[in-house]
Design goal:
This protein is an alpha/beta fold and about 270 residues long. About 45% of the residues lie in helices and about 15% in strands. It is globular. Strands 1-2-3-4-5-6-7-8 form an 8-stranded parallel barrel, surrounded by 6 helices. It is built from 12 helices and 8 strands. Strand 7, helix 10 and strand 8 form a beta-alpha-beta unit. Helix 2 runs parallel beside helix 4 and helix 2 runs parallel beside helix 12.
Length: about 270
């Protein structure tokens, strides 16, 4: 999916919600454990319930890899289900890959050819040659880690050099030499608040993938106040707050209700751009 197609979906659906499929076998409703593939069954019902209220899905690979072959089969079938039934939804594989060039080339082939997802989260620490193999694919996106919402983000991302430039700012500036607004996004945690102002000074037009709204305490209104652009420029992710909103047979309906609430808030923010 290219940039203009993504923007069209956001404004036509009046939402920039991304639903995180962090599907934990120990947290899904117990009655699903009787199914042949509990993870896939859970995902399908969550997707069907939330699709009207979002533009993107973000399965987190760790939750699938932790289950070995069965988990990866569920991931693959989840991607196929999305592409077959909801082809206009953007798919982000949250895998945080990034390695030397030859290895990154294989990761890129895995996610952009074998699984054919739209975007992949990438760790920038190893630099240009670890990222550029992912940029070889037309209408595919690199989502580069910039300023995350976890406590440890302060350990490195906010450190300053002798000129006062923080590491996350260096990542933003340097990476623009490798890509552009058509194929690179950045991960910025919702809990960073007014730091979005600083982010937008460096990348005024790039899309930002924003985790941390909901369970992690990030404010959608604050993210929009400092981070939204005339083309929206945001994909705000909610995972646990949506998919685990319910714990019994009505879990999908509970997820739909949470997603709808966020979509309505997002519609209000988009209306302000007119």
């Amino acid at each position: 999916m290219n940039r203009q197609e993504l923007i069209k979906q956001i404004f036509s659906r009046k939402t920039f919600l991304c639903v995180g499929l962090d599907t934990d076998i120990n947290k899904i409703p117990k009655h699903l454990l009787r199914e042949d593939d509990p993870i896939l069954t859970f995902n399908k019902q969550i997707i069907d319930a939330t699709a009207p209220y979002c533009v993107a899905y973000k399965p987190n690979l760790a939750f699938y890899e932790s289950l070995g072959v069965k988990g990866m089969a569920a991931f693959e079938q989840t991607i196929k289900y999305l592409k077959t039934n909801y082809p206009n939804h953007f798919i982000i594989a949250d895998a945080k890959r990034g390695d030397i060039g030859n290895t990154s080339m294989m990761y890129a082939r895995t996610f952009f050819e074998e699984y054919d997802v739209d975007a992949l989260t990438i760790a920038p620490y190893m630099g240009e040659d670890s990222v550029t193999p992912f940029l070889e694919y037309k209408d595919k996106w690199v989502v580069l880690l910039a300023l995350t919402s976890n406590k440890g983000s302060h350990d490195f991302q906010l450190t300053e050099d002798k000129d006062g430039e923080r590491l996350f700012e260096k990542v933003l500036r340097k990476s623009q030499e490798w890509a552009n607004t058509e194929n690179m996004m950045y991960v910025v945690g919702a809990t960073q608040g007014r730091m979005f102002e600083d982010i937008r000074k460096v990348v005024p037009n790039h899309f930002l993938l924003v985790p941390g709204v909901g369970t992690q305490g990030g404010s959608l209104q604050e993210v929009c106040q400092y981070g939204i652009t005339k083309e929206c420029g945001l994909l705000v992710n909610s995972s646990r707050g949506i998919i685990y909103a319910g714990h019994d047979e009505d879990f999908a309906a509970a997820a739909a209700q949470k997603a709808k609430m966020l979509q309505q808030e997002m519609a209000e923010e988009l209306n302000k751009l007119k």
